[in-house]
Amino acid sequence: MKQLFQNYRDDERRIGENYLSSIQDFNCNSKPLINMPTMLGEENINYAHIIVIYLTA
Fold it and tell me: pTM value?
């Protein structure tokens, strides 16, 4: 997957990878784990297009 995103800026890659990591942490029904992607999305609203690309890759 790294090859797929090599053309993105470092900050864009970091945001996308952080968001994916927070999704991959879902291993139980835990409110903090569920809230993390929401908070990352809210904090990085300017990178919403990058998050969508990472999620659909």
Answer: 0.79
Q: Give the N- to C-terminal CA distance of the chain in Å, as an integer.
A: 8
Q: How far apart are CA 45 and CA 40, in angstroms?
A: 8
CA distance 48 to 40: 10
Got the DSSP string for the chain? -GGGGTTS-HHHHHHHHHHHHHHHT--S--HHHHHHHHHHHHHTGGGHHHHHHHHH-
Quick one: pLDDT band at residue 27, thresholds 50, 70, 90?
confident
* Cα distance between residue 46 and residue 36, in whole Å: 17
